[in-house]
Design a protein that fits this description.
Blueprint: H1 2-29, H2 32-66, H3 70-105
Length: 106
């Protein structure tokens, strides 16, 4: 149990470090207000993706736990991930376009 948990911990630690290191770098070169705007824009961008992922996960987990056919589950997962990928791609591109337009107009 410890080898699995330690690898999971190390993976989470590495992810959080890499996720937040650029905020330190941005904070070094820009003011606190600009860093705050950047973090808030990032949170606004991630909110639809997080909500969609949590919704899909809460619906599919009970369904997948009741199905015992591994091949059938893999086909369903590939289908869902394909749909979620394109929805997230649309949301991300729309958010980034709107943020870019707002930045250029200010």
């Amino acid at each position: 149990m410890f080898p699995y948990g330690s690898r999971l911990f190390a993976s989470g630690l590495l992810y959080n470090t890499m996720e937040n290191v650029y905020k330190v770098i941005i904070g070094k070169f820009f003011s606190a207000a600009e860093l705050g705007y950047f973090i808030k824009a990032q949170q606004i961008q991630e909110r639809p993706i997080i909500t969609l992922t949590q919704t899909v996960g809460s619906v599919t987990f009970p369904v997948f736990s009741s199905i015992q056919d591994i091949h059938f589950i893999s086909v369903i997962i590939q289908y869902i991930l394909g749909k979620v990928f394109y929805m997230q791609l649309y949301v991300i591109s729309t958010c980034q376009y709107n943020l870019l337009i707002n930045f250029l107009l200010v």
